[in-house]
From TrEMBL:
Gene3D superfamilies: 3.40.50.2300. The modification 4-aspartylphosphate is found at D71. The keyword Zinc-finger does not apply. The keyword DNA-binding applies. The lineage of its organism: Bacteria, Pseudomonadati, Myxococcota, Myxococcia, Myxococcales. It comes from the Bacteria. This is Response regulatory domain-containing protein. InterPro entries: CheY-like_superfamily (IPR011006), Sig_transdc_resp-reg_receiver (IPR001789), WalR-like (IPR039420). Keywords: DNA-binding, Phosphoprotein, Transcription, Transcription regulation, Two-component regulatory system. Residues 21-136 form the Response regulatory domain.
Length: 322
């Protein structure tokens, strides 16, 4: 039975959340039963199990889900196609792919469709599924918090500007300027520095898309000050580079060709890198879209910091007698 007061991104926003909803899809009844039993131990999860993509799509039309967990090989529509269609229907949905027949091609296809994680079965530890679902829910929650925080900050700025008409003109102008900058960042803030390691093709694609791009060797200290670093799996030092940049400033995008090693891709997923399939017909579209999304997120964060400072200054100017 579904609990009331659920919330999602889209319909039903703002009503609060008592439980998270997981849509589980597998055509093997035994696997489905095990997964349901495992996730049902979590009191705050509502699990809806189905045996086909077609059944899943019926539920997705009428209900909001937080996470989709699907097997790759299904009768009829496959798991990759299901993820793509589910994400089209519910863009905020997190998707996790499960397969017993892992390949580099299937990993790339899953991430291109919108998956954010990948599990190879049989699981060495059944708890891995629960951990992956929890991680997916946390990613979704972080997006919701960021979005809601952005809206609240813009609302506060508008209210303060209206209430503080008699504030000193410099503070008033500074807040208005930062509010405009913030709104612009939310709409289109994809400026920043992109560093590319080991791919002349990626450099050309990103420059053609009008990004500010520099090509750097993997040992360059400049990589740590870039906003986004793009590296190919074909670069023999990508593992070392990825580990070095973990916890540092840049977002790291891994370009994976069809001949990429499966263990490399699974390691990249473990490292929480952004994975982009490359060398395909849509490469010129996929990579710029990913980089634009990452830069936009960074632009919003920076604008939010500046707007917070302007709000504090404005509040102080109102509170301080002339």
């Amino acid at each position: 039975m579904d609990l009331p007061f659920e919330t999602g991104e889209g319909e039903g926003e703002g009503r609060g959340t008592l439980a998270s909803k997981v849509l589980l899809v597998d055509d093997e009844p035994v696997v489905l039963d095990i997964c349901v039993r495992l996730l049902a131990r979590e009191a705050d999860l509502i699990v809806s199990p189905v045996g086909s993509a077609e059944e899943a799509l019926v539920l997705l039309k009428d209900q909001r889900f937080d996470v989709l967990v699907t097997d790759k090989n299904l009768p009829g529509m496959g798991g990759v196609e299901l993820i793509a269609e589910a994400r089209r229907m519910q863009p905020a949905l997190e998707a996790v792919m499960i397969t017993a027949y892992a390949s580099s091609e299937s990993v790339i296809a899953a991430f291109a469709a919108g998956a954010s994680d990948y599990i190879v079965k049989p699981f060495d530890d059944l708890r891995v599924l629960r951990a992956k679902v929890r991680a997916a829910l946390e990613r979704r929650s972080e997006r919701v918090r960021t979005r809601d925080g952005a809206r609240e900050m813009a609302r506060q700025a508008a209210v303060l500007l209206d209430a503080g008409r008699d504030a000193p003109e410099p503070a008033h102008e500074a807040l208005e300027t930062e509010l405009r900058n913030y709104e612009q960042a939310v709409r289109m803030g994809h400026t920043g520095t992109v560093a590319v390691v080991g791919s002349a093709e990626a450099v050309k694609v990103l420059r053609d898309a009008e990004f500010q791009v520099v090509e750097l060797p993997p040992y360059s200290p400049q990589l740590e000050s870039a906003d986004v670093v793009v590296v190919e799996t074909g670069d023999p030092q990508w593992h070392t580079l990825a580990e070095r940049l973990q916890g540092r400033s840049p977002d790291v995008v891994l370009l994976a060709g069809a001949d990429a090693d499966l263990s490399d891709l699974l390691e990249a997923i473990t490292l929480r890198m952004d994975l982009v399939g490359y060398g395909q017909s849509n490469a010129a579209r996929v990579l710029p879209e990913k980089v634009r999304m990452l830069l936009m997120r960074r632009g919003i964060q920076r604008a939010q910091q500046r707007l917070t400072a302007a709000l504090d200054t404005f509040r102080q100017s109102i509170a301080t007698p002339n």
